[in-house]
């Protein structure tokens, strides 16, 4: 039967069973479309990265002998949406059957579900064969439970997939080594210089500009640093296990203005596009540890494995359990606007300036920068989660809604009221100073709560707790904060709240 198979930009899995045999009756289609480039303002590196990886994947399939149609952004006959282009192809080439893989995003999933209802030819849906868990597996695992605790799901994944296990017990006897993974970088410690690529994406960037796609951030098109095919992705994985894994866990939460990725893997783009499978990534890390366990301590490895088999799968499970309602949640009713400097980095607050500038320059920030700097401030500033989501969904090369929204709206903004996290991730300057090298040279004074040059995080932090007392005071994990707040002199409390009010009023000048 003459068959058309759709491959989305984040379905670049060379080892999918679709490609096991060459079949002249099957045509694969990949397409660059405005519905995907325009649903949010993406970083230019994200659009170029997806297009480059899609083009490489199409080339690779063709070299293997598969029949491929690739629709470029400015192609004359590009109708700029998945459905219209598929309709057009079916009618031109007289396809008799249509197939696609389960999309990772709810938006596209709905779109395809509705689309196939309109088809007069037969169709079939396939799994992406990428994740450890099925879409509905987390919901089934937590059935009847009020709280979705990540640790429980992580242990279940480890047991089910026999990862770092000895019989039914965790290898080494302990599941989680997180308490060992909270170190600040020592002064003068220079982390591994990141491996970057020199891909030439000039033509792609030219086409994106020609089409007037609105993007954010910067790019060096002749030296595009992100991996765009499986070979480069594997090179990055090798670099990670050799140069970064030995320190990964220890400095996982550390931040510095002097390195944009520290010991982080930067593999999220390669996995989210499916150029690499999560299983092969953790297996490679485990092998490196097995061969060098005198050099790589177990906390480094367990920390890394937990991010992938734990957090990544957990976030995806929450997404499919809670969408579409999740995208509307706003537990605190936050309505403020994102400060202008989120789009420029022009702020005197060092931590935010460096985290935002590196995001604009590299389409990347590591987890603690996302959670405890930009996310933390947005929550303290009472920004509407819709705006926070749009910023995160656009700016990062790895941003796809299934993993972005659960991390942003859930974990970082607590807009889900405690599904993805058990308490809001907010902090004053003391945590930021403990984990980073930002505060020392900052315009603001990390030790001051009020007065000239007082660090805005300090007053906004107490203001946050004060404002949301009715929603948070009962939470066991934060009742200590209310004890401390309520012990303060009323005059000091008023000063702090006034300072916060002033900063919120002049937020764009911070
Ligand atoms: P590493 O630190 O090297 O970790 C290894 C891998 O573990 C990552 O590649 C990633 O696949 C996985 N991982 C780690 N933490 C998480 C997590 N919390 N959730 C899911 N997977 C995780 N991740 C995305 O892939 N896309 C996003 O759009 C995204 N948005 C985020 C928004 C916010 C507000 C926050 C707090 C986190 C977000 N994350 C997102 C999770 C995490 O920050 C990134 O996965 C990580 O920074 C990617 O860099 P890395 O590959 O160097 O990660
Ligand atoms: C992120 C992205 C962008 C910017 N452009 C495209 C595109 O033009 N064509 C495409 O197939 N995929 C693109 N992607 C990735 C998609 O947004 C992703 O495949 C879907 O949202 C499903 O997760
Ligand atoms: Fe950020 Fe405050 Fe530290 Fe400045 S003093 S870097 S604003 S936490």
Label this structure with key terms.
510 residues, alpha/beta, five-stranded parallel sheet, two-stranded parallel sheet, 9 strands, globular, binds flavin-adenine dinucleotide, binds ligand DLZ, binds iron/sulfur cluster
Please sum up the structure shown:
With 510 residues, the chain is α/β, with parallel strands linked by helices.
Written account of the structure:
The protein is α/β, with parallel strands linked by helices and 510 residues long. The protein has helices at residues 34-37, 44-63, 82-93, 106-117, 137-141, 150-160, 202-210, 230-248, 268-272, 278-291, 298-322, 350-362, 367-380, 385-395, 401-412, 429-435, 456-467, 469-472, 479-487, 490-505; strands at 3-6, 26-31, 42-43, 67-71, 97-101, 122-126, 165-166, 169-170, 215-216. Helix 8 (230-248) crosses helix 11. The longest helix is centred in the middle third of the chain and has 25 residues, at 298-322. The radius of gyration is 24 Å and the shape is globular. The N and C termini lie far apart (63 Å). It binds flavin-adenine dinucleotide, ligand DLZ and iron/sulfur cluster (SF4). Iron/sulfur cluster is lined by residues 349-351, 429, 432-433, 438-439, 442, 444, 446, 455, 457.
